[in-house]
């Protein structure tokens, strides 16, 4: 199975198991409550939105990745129209983070 497919599968599993939150406000709140383990921001978000979310990640020491197109991630997660995704389970966060890093390193090799 390709890394992209694995990533989307894991994201779907996280959504179905209740370990995925979406949207600016919900993810911000979960960071403040120390419930978020990984934040995924999609390409195409406003610079100001990315800046604010990264500041929160820094404040609460939350790992993040900027990855993928919002339509693709939203479709995989079953959350149309969303561009900010938060993973609340540590194991899902580790696996998804590893897959994103793998995909990005593969893309760098082929570019």
What topology, given as strand order, has the largest sheet? 1-4-2-3
Based on CA atoms alone, the radius of gyration comes out at 13 Å
Given the helix and strand composition, which structural class is it? alpha+beta
Oligomer: single chain
Beta strand count:
4
What string gives the helices and strands in order? HEHEHEHEH
Number of helices: 5
Weakly predicted, low-confidence segments: none
Specify the overall morphology. Answer: globular
Could you characterize what this model shows?
This protein has 111 residues and is of the alpha+beta class. It is 59% helix and 18% strand. α1 (3-16) runs antiparallel to α5 and α2 (24-32) runs parallel beside α3. The longest helix is centred in the C-terminal third of the chain and has 21 residues, at 90-110.
């Amino acid at each position: 199975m390709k890394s992209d497919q694995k990533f989307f599968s894991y994201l779907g599993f996280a959504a179905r198991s209740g370990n995925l939150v979406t949207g600016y406000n919900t993810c911000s709140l979960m960071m403040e409550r120390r419930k978020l383990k990984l934040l995924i921001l999609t390409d195409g978000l406003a610079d100001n939105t990315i800046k604010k979310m990264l500041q929160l990640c820094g404040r609460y020491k939350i790992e993040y990745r900027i990855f993928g197109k919002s339509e693709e991630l939203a479709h995989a997660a079953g959350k149309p129209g969303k561009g900010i995704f938060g993973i609340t389970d540590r194991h899902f966060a580790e696996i998804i983070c590893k897959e994103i890093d793998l995909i990005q390193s593969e893309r760098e090799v082929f570019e």
